[in-house]
Design goal:
This protein is mainly α. Helices cover 55% and strands 6% of the residues. Helix 2 packs parallel to helix 3.
């Protein structure tokens, strides 16, 4: 599919799945970043702005620019919106453990946002729409039962580089498209800094490794670095638990 066809397919997907489930309202956590903006644009087109609630949930270290960009997306699309500061929720955990590191704090922030989104979905009889892309899902770059929690996800089969392309097709502001990818979990945090490689480089590898099912020897022959291949494969395998439902022991009958 070309990017125009993907655009139309995803809007139809949202329309169809919402109708099948009996819901006509959506809740989206909007961060001011690329992925949530793309999902907001798609969902607005599918359901109409008044049926979408954009929830902006900054923490005290969040960049004010991201909150402003998230509000801009909501206003541009005519979405209902709400800002909820998660600082009191998150800082309660800091009172319990003052030695908490950045990773744990980021997980708590992500799960606090999930609690808010699902509470609002219960209030409004709405579905939570997810914003994780295929690159993040494969690499486990997300918090289980946090930012990966949702009822429906229109971009989960799109690599990050494809989401950039779709953003331009949808008319997402260039300021957001050109922003350095960041979960905004702490000051100076970036996705690529944490991952240790760029989305552009890893997407090239993932397309050949996952979609085209190339072996390591074939990937090396194509010019990919052996250490890079091994690092990505290991990361995919170690995060498999995030991509499946909880395992339930089946009792022999």
């Amino acid at each position: 599919m070309n990017i125009y066809e993907i655009h139309k397919y995803l809007v139809d997907f949202l329309k169809t799945e919402f109708e099948k489930s009996g819901f006509n309202k959506a809740i989206i956590g909007i961060s001011g970043g690329l992925d949530s903006a793309v999902v907001a644009y798609l969902t607005k087109e599918a359901l109409g702005g008044l049926n979408v609630l954009g929830v902006i949930m900054p923490y005290k270290t969040s960049t004010p620019e991201n909150t402003a960009d998230a509000m801009h997306v909501c206003k541009t699309l005519g979405l209902r919106s709400r800002i909820i500061d998660i600082t009191p929720m998150v800082d309660e955990f800091l009172n319990v453990d003052r030695h908490m590191n950045h990773i744990r704090l980021g997980n708590i922030a992500a799960r606090s946002r999930m609690i808010i989104l699902y509470d609002l979905s219960a209030r409004d009889n709405a579905l939570v729409v997810g914003t994780s892309n295929k690159t993040e899902i494969l690499l486990g770059y997300g918090t289980i039962y946090g930012d990966t929690a949702c009822a429906i996800n229109p971009i989960g089969d799109l690599y990050k580089t494809q989401v950039w392309e779709l953003a331009r097709e949808l008319g997402v502001p260039e300021k957001i498209i050109n922003k350095v990818p960041s979960a905004d979990l702490w000051v100076g945090q970036t996705d690529e800094g944490e991952l240790g490689f760029s989305y552009k480089d890893v997407d090239k590898l993932l397309i050949e490794m996952i979609d085209n099912k190339k072996s390591d020897s074939e990937l090396i022959a194509m010019g990919f670095n052996k250490d890079f291949i091994e690092k990505v494969r290991k990361r995919i395998k170690s995060n498999e638990f995030k991509r499946r439902m909880p395992l339930i022991a089946e009792i022999p009958k």
